[in-house]
User: Fold these one by one.
Assistant:
Number 1:
Amino acid sequence: MRLSIGQVHRNVLALASSRSCFVLGDRVSFRMLSQPRVAGFHQTAWRGSQILEDNRGGPLTLASLEVQSRVEYGKKGKMERTGGPKPSSRASSLYVKPKVSSNVKPAKSALMKPAGIKKTLKVDEALFSAKSFEELGLPPLLVDQLNKEGLTAPTEVQSAAIPIIAQKHDVVIQSYTGSGKTLAYLLPILSDIGPLKRTMEQDHSEKRSGIEAVIVAPSRELGMQIVREVEKILGPNDKRLVQQLVGGANRSRQEEALKKNKPIIVVGTPGRISEISAAGKLHTHGCRFLVLDEVDQLLSFNYREDMHRILEHVGRRPGGTSRDILGPLARRSERQTILVSATIPFSVIRAARSWGHDPVLIRAKSVVPLDSITVPRPALSQSDANPSSSSQSVNQAAVGSLPPSLEHYYCTAKAQHKVDTLRRCIHALEAQTVIAFMNNTKPLKDVVFKLEARGIKATELHGDLGKLARSTVLKKFKDGEFRVLVTNELSARGLDVPECDLVVNLDLPTDSTHYAHRAGRTGRLGRKGIVVTICEESEGFVVRKMRKQLDVAIKPCEFTEGELVVHKEEDVE
Ligand SMILES: Nc1ncnc2c1ncn2[C@@H]1O[C@H](COP(=O)(O)OP(=O)(O)OP(=O)(O)O)[C@@H](O)[C@H]1O
């Protein structure tokens, strides 16, 4: 395939999508494919073949990637599914056999009743790569530690990401929820820094001191989850090498720990990292890795000042290009930048291009250079802004973000009957670990109260709770003390509760990206999971619209006589 390459320099100040993703920096260089029909990487079905075995240890270049000659175009609108069969073709194994009546057609999958004991949801082996951790070049000490933790095979996205990150590329990792993106970036980092790294580099790297990796996450809960993951791999003797810098926790204690423990990795929320950095207590100029987990959220308007500081300070090369000419964030730095999310809008691709060295997009079974992806121009001013194209970008971001193992349904209920419908839904599906989402904080308590009154153990989680209460609630829910967690958007991103077998939307998510992240709290790592949206009759069209945007079947249903009854599509369209 021939690429026509042009350079476009552009001042980018404006938001690039309806979700207010902003692009920092004032000079963006990107190349465009000559084919105008290419809508973008999510929709266009890029099929970069699995190229990892083609890299024979040398530095990864576009030529070595062989992507230009090996990329194929799929049909417009069809997406490439990775790491598992299509939803329609899979065999399912969830709790209930759907009831079929005259106006009802059976669900495609065969649902089955559970044993009356606490379920252990089976992990789908198709999600795992054929390669082993050793074959991906991880150091023996690290592989041993992974084995000790019961991690014996990499997932597809880990298999794709580990060698590319090890070759020092700036990357964007996009893979569906629960596919193992956290280890996809942690493992190559821990191969390079800390006590488990490659032995041949040990002597040289021993001399390094200070923070070598900064990982940023949008919520305290996700930050702490990442910290636990790093601690697990480092083991009890070295867990002090990772320091949490999340908001809500005691700042002076965090600062003391930085001084005393001399961590090599910090994980935190944007506000707290930037606060401690501004106070001169966090020195990250020599940092080699910057990870933005849930990057599309981190680059939203809400975080712009803190993220600006982080991008400006972390791993900054002393004496970089003058900010007068290029602006502070267009300056190339020595750090390796790793951007991660299940949903990657065009604004993130643009940002990654402007910050990175030959950045590549890694998906579970493909690796493509970002320069080869056509993205629409960002709106430069209010008058240029085309709301439909920016919302299109957000919707495009959601395609391919959902695990194939999920089943999606929706039913209608009046507002005052939603909790009762939720109760019937939980019983019909015999769900044991349920996350119910609402859009606001206030009504959460009321839903908990009503569920408890109906004999279902429930609890609420939201940002207004104190730090301690938040972690206690989450721990108790993970330990199975509560059957239902009623929560808001706070829990939609990154939260990993492997046992979660049902997600319910009690309020409609604001768009398909929000739907994807909420839905992704179930069906983790290829496990089976069900997502049910309970909406009012007048909102049914919104669900059907999201279904189209996400390219997944969200089937109309109801819960009667303790059964899930799936309706024929024609009856409701
Ligand atoms: N190779 C592996 N073997 C077994 N379990 C794994 C492996 N990799 C990751 N996991 C587990 O899979 C679960 C999901 O991983 P993770 O939270 O990294 O997913 P994710 O892709 O980041 O999801 P999200 O997009 O929702 O943040 C976690 O419980 C994690 O410990």
Number 2:
Amino acid sequence: MTNRIRVGITGYGNLGRGVEAAIAQSPDMRLVGVFSRRDPAGVQLLDSEVPVYSIDRTEEFTDEIDVMILCGGSKSDLPEQGPYMAGLFNVVDSYDTHASIPEYYASVDQPARESGHVYLLSSGWDPGLFSINRLMGEAILPEGETYTFWGKGLSQGHSDAVRRVPGVKGGVQYTIPSETAIERVRSGQLPQLETRDKHVRECYVVLEEGADANAVRHAIVSMPAYFADYDTTVHFIDEATLKAEHGAMPHGGFVIRSGKTGQDNDQVMEFSLKLGSNPEFTASVLVAYARAVHRLARLGDIGAKTVFDVAPGLLSPKSPAQLRKELL
Ligand SMILES: NC(=O)C1=CN([C@@H]2O[C@H](COP(=O)(O)OP(=O)(O)OC[C@H]3O[C@@H](n4cnc5c(N)ncnc54)[C@H](OP(=O)(O)O)[C@@H]3O)[C@@H](O)[C@H]2O)C=CC1
Ligand SMILES: N[C@@H](C[C@H]1CC(C(=O)O)=NO1)C(=O)O
């Protein structure tokens, strides 16, 4: 296929690998290269034919990449990489530190506008698809309550945050929903639930040699925007156990809007996900939004966008006429 969308990946971890695989499933796209902070010779891709470059070389590729997909961690990587890449490329990222999204939006909007690029931030499933469903629920059922539950599963954002704590060599975080809270919601009680009522968080951590376990535990459980508002447990394990027992990354969850319409009828809207691989699903969302960003850029649009700003049809490889014929 000629005129394929030329995509770059910055950051090659779980999500970067998932984006590589998702691009391979997209005949209208071509992966130009992967950019990493590590020595390119030490980064093994799924497809050995795709080149790996040092992240220091990204400026050489501004005319060769239509959309750059940032796959770094939201806690530390994207706050630095996002504003920089916004000045060079059309970008898609999965920034998911919910409490800081307004500030992050502003930090990428200015460089994107000044350089004439589109920057789609906070794509994925939450934020992302769940955000869209929370919006739809509130718009359609103005009288009601919205609830979001995740897991049991591995949160990549929280796992990334754990791995950034000084003294941590490796780690993962599982999110576990309260069955009691879910039952109260599903029974139509419209309960008022606090953050701590809905989920607990469980971390499995490998310590660096000589690290202080109590200091690491405190740094995790008190971490603002990630763990401070939850009951969090930290287990210390060895590296072999982490590799043997915590390599899979399933996840999922659901958004429910429960409310009443104008003649007092009960209505429930629900959107749910069951994910065999959190990173691969998230990556597939990013790649679909990369298609939309490329189209918006070609239409002359610029600046920061969220999933609320993107018409769903732009995500599809099908033409508007095909979509009207097949999906309406
Ligand atoms: N919005 C949403 O719904 C979702 C968002 N996310 C976001 O995705 C982010 C990335 O998650 P994930 O891919 O699991 O994070 P990883 O820890 O796997 O990767 C983060 C970065 O770390 C570096 N890295 C990866 N592996 C290694 C290694 N072996 N040695 C040294 N550095 C390494 C890579 O950068 P480099 O190549 O430059 O070294 C990579 O980009 C999360 O922080 C989260 O915020 C995830 C899921 C859902
Ligand atoms: N952003 C999340 C995606 C979902 C999962 C989640 C959680 O378990 O807290 N919150 O949002 C991730 O990084 O996995």
Number 3:
Amino acid sequence: MDSRTKGKTVMEVGSDGVAVITLINPPVNSLSFDVLYNLKSNYEEALSRNDVKAIVITGAKGKFSGGFDISGFGEIQKGTRKEPKVGYISIDILTDLLEAARKPSVAAIDGLALGGGLELSMACHARISTPGAQLGLPELQLGVIPGFGGTQRLPRLVGLTKALEMILTSKPVRAEEGHSLGLIDAVVPSAELLTTARRWALDIVERRKPWISSVLKTDKLPPLGEAREILKFARGQTRKQAPNMKHPLMCLDALETGIVSGPRAGLEKEAEVGSQVISLDTTKGLIHVFFSQRGTVKVPGVTDRGLIPRKIKKVAIIGGGLMGSGIATALILSNYPVILKEVNEKFLEAGIGRVKANLQSRVRKGSMSKEKFEKTMSLLKGSLDYESFRDVDMVIEAVIENISLKQQIFADLEKYCPQHCILASNTSTIDLNKIGERTKSQDRIVGAHFFSPAHVMPLLEIVRTNHTSAQVIVDLLDVGKKIKKTPVVVGNCTGFAVNRMFFPYTQAAMFLVERGADPYLIDSAVSKFGMPMGPFRLCDLVGFGVAIATATQFIENFPERTYKSMIIPLMQEDKRAGEATRKGFYLYDDKRKAKPDPELKKYIEKARSMSGANVDPKLVKLSEKEIIEMTFFPVVNEACRVFAEGIAVKAADLDIAAIFGMGFPPYRGGIMFWADSIGSKYIYSRLDEWSKTYGDFFKPCAFLAERGSKGAPLSAPVEQARSRL
Ligand SMILES: CCCCCCCCCCC/C=C/C(=O)SCCNC(=O)CCNC(=O)[C@H](O)C(C)(C)COP(=O)(O)OP(=O)(O)OC[C@H]1O[C@@H](n2cnc3c(N)ncnc32)[C@H](O)[C@@H]1OP(=O)(O)O
């Protein structure tokens, strides 16, 4: 392939009169501009040649297409690529050239047909697929819409309700389901794919198979009145579930236009809104997240050294509490044999019981069969000593946050585990150098920080010290991939990346409340901003025991910028420890539904008098925008410190850590991306002003001050950062 072009298509014309056009753009045959323009010229040639009767489109190396080349959106957003005429791809090429052609086309789908890939196949006159192929329109997840005709053709092929489900959830279906839905005409083994597709294409020419233009089909569409009701319901749901995003509603507009005014009007509307959504801020954020998420596994100096991950055949976990049992669940779900160690029979039984309950909940929900449950549970063995650790390849310690206990465990592990065994700790805050102080195995000590519940939450913070070997990081990245986690590799310090960013967020909330802001209004503003819940509801969920233990670490290590509020310790003294005790910042009923508690005032007033804070009339009347700024700009400030210190090597890693570890809304692109969308100058000036009024908690760090004074982007690489990695 020419190195200046991004992908191509090749066409071969067989003696049977079928032209096979192959999409070639590794690794997923995405539809770059080069691929699309090549496809067009191949098509024009095929249509003009007398020796071509029909056309088959397929993808190279077992993948049809992963859709439009997502980096193309970035080029359009940055202005480095001019967008073609509105509707050029979907109307001019796919509809008027391909679908309306005098020669039929058949899509031969192997592996996957996603987004623009599936849309291209739907413009063909039939689709043949291999078993298990993934078929979907995941565009909304990227902030764009199925703009290559998908809003028009999918409802006509599978019906309006199923099309809405597939488009709004972005979830793909397998080929077998696609077949029963009418999206796929035949499912055949891989070896028969091309021959079947060629024959099918010729059968269409000979009228032995129907010549169907999906865009003209009407048999699967409901009557107009019913369609309008279905769309009205979908709009209501969308507004509720994605209140801060416009593109799903714009997508529904395109769907509705097609149903009400016909497919041509629908395609035109789709082209119009498709081109508009590209410049939405939410789209920019989501596309940034797509590439940043895939970028976390690219660690300079580690993953560029040609190291091959070693095979991890068996894992041991120490501690069967909430974290340990969650980690064990995640591992056995991905077929890793696991030994769970506890200190006595009672704790061991409880730990195994937790793993069982995690899996049983899947059986109850129907996502796991009873046989699979038994098979998965059989991978878990309990142990009360270290004898069975002699052949494990990795240990993950997940006991309580007690330094001397962890030091003892690591010293024991060194004695019992084989020399190559990775020694990981699930600590969320403690310095790993301290944990490994009593060993000579520093090069294989690493942090594997999971988030609770570990079998559900997607983030894995991989913490490396100055001594951790690159091989160990590569191994853990591989385990992370196998257990379907998004890993972020960070440096060693108190709180690592996620908890360091988290801490100022809850602290800022306590600070505001002590000065008169309403905690329930803060929670409401933060939820509207897009966080899954506000800081007070979150403290209740995590529990005050954990909140106090974490705060203690931060007060010890970063005293100059820790705000010491007594609200939580005062409530804890009164045996209100959050949701688990049914009382915290909120009161909880039997169904764990939270409602505000008028008694909370009492604790706030007492904490206020202890800290000597006064009610500040300005802070009592904060607008929602001010609440967001005062709670999240301190987070940006800490993220800047983490970045400047080299704890994170890329700003984009902090974006992913914030999204998957804190629940920061993905459509805002992550903490640093969001900060840059506001501007470093403004953030710096606000923090600087608050620090003068309210103290050092808000004081901008040197990195933010430097970039803010110039208005420079916070996410630009740190030259010669004082790397601690
Ligand atoms: C002409 C346009 C201008 C006019 C505007 C018109 C209006 C807009 C109309 C748009 C209509 C069509 C839109 C689309 O098709 S958007 C794309 C839809 N597709 C997807 O969302 C799929 C995304 N990809 C995935 O889900 C997975 O990558 C996949 C399941 C395909 C494979 O997963 P796997 O785990 O095996 O691998 P990775 O995810 O790590 O990916 C491997 C590498 O491939 C890169 N990749 C994947 N998909 C794309 C893509 N569509 N475009 C570009 N690059 C893609 C991914 O980044 C990885 O790269 P690296 O190895 O470098 O990290």
Number 4:
Amino acid sequence: MKLLKVDTIASARDKTVNILQNKLLKTECRKLLESQGYILASDIISREPVPAFHRSAVDGYAVISGDTAGSSENLPVFLECVDEIDMGSPALKEIHPGECVYVPTGGMIPPGADAVVMVEYCEAFDSSHVAVYSPVSYGKNVVLAGEDIEQGEIVIKKGTKIRPQEIGAMASLGITEAVVFKPWEITIISTGDELVPPHTTPAPGEIRDINSYSLCAQAQKHGLTVLNTVVQKDDEQKLKEAVIQAMQVSDVVIISGGSSQGKKDATNDIIDEVASEGSFIHGLALKPGKPTIAGYDENSRTLLAGLPGHPVAAMLVFELLVIWVWKHLTDQPADSSLFARITSNLAGAPGKMTCQLVKLIRQENEIHAEPVFGKSGLITTMTRADGYILIDENKEGLKKDEIVEVFYI
Ligand SMILES: Nc1nc2c(c(=O)[nH]1)N[C@H]1C(S)=C(S)[C@@H](COP(=O)(O)OP(=O)(O)OC[C@H]3O[C@@H](n4cnc5c(N)ncnc54)[C@H](O)[C@@H]3O)O[C@H]1N2
Ligand code: MOO
């Protein structure tokens, strides 16, 4: 009897991270507006403060705050307006007690001033004086130099997925190109004599190929580049050739199907043969996902992953292993999750971690996680779910109403 020697998901992740180290990590320089969705490859440290000078947050008069103390609608303070600042021009003239300067929103605060009174609370009294009807405290309506970003500050951490706000922050610092991790280039090979493309009508015994599509979309969702998707019959020689060809151009080659113990299941033998380090994972203590294989080839620098053919198992293993390793190596923060109350008792699987799909339901201001049951060969088990929970291999199960951590899919 041929039994798989399985790894826990934790040890499979460790093994993969250790064998890859940083060998599959490359960086590239992208123009700022072409960097959205990419992962920053080093910290962004500011070389200058933002803003670089004290600015007014309102249209008003820059004043020495102490001068406005005690002013009111009935008893204004009169200040001499000694200058008017133009947008984009420096404020060079220092103000002294009893003086003020007109500043537009965003204009530079003149030396000596420490607050701005909004125009609504001021009135021109004569050609050079302004009546101020409301006091302002120190710093009021002033954006201080460095208040947004201090010089030397880590503004954006390595591993951050660049969003529009990160692009804005880099622009504010004069950064026009971002150094990002080059997304892994992936080839997805689906194996099976039964697979036909979605646009065709399957003959009896045939099915439409799901995994090339779902795995491709999943890779793209996580910012990875899919070079090619290939459907290959269960012919060991042809499959091996397809894998070797893909290894020449890809960082990662995914083979879906043929990972179990059927007569035509050749994925493990092929990975073992073509990878210089052989296959280092064959079997996960995970439900679903037991027949998972991984190998690494040092010559072409390719990670090879054999995923179970069942569509749900393939997607979950791709997420829990390949995507996890990509995120880990590129220093991305842990996935966002939420805590919810499970709606029924759930049995665990002895000796195996269970990845249980759930649907999230809001009930009376509480989020509930309702298990979505279904075989791992049924893709709609996945479409009905919002996320998954992990039941530890050492846990017999979960009790209804227990709080569980739900990871989004
Ligand atoms: N005797 C045993 N049989 C099986 C075991 C086992 O331990 N002992 N494990 C079962 C589990 S769990 C899974 S998962 C599957 C994994 O099978 P393979 O990775 O070898 O994949 P295939 O046999 O090629 O396919 C399984 C199933 O998935 C369908 N499939 C495959 N590729 C696609 C695709 N691209 N799109 C849609 N559907 C696909 C395929 O038609 C099969 O129905 O093995 C169990 N058996
Ligand atoms: O564990 Mo298989 O990977 O159930 O579907």
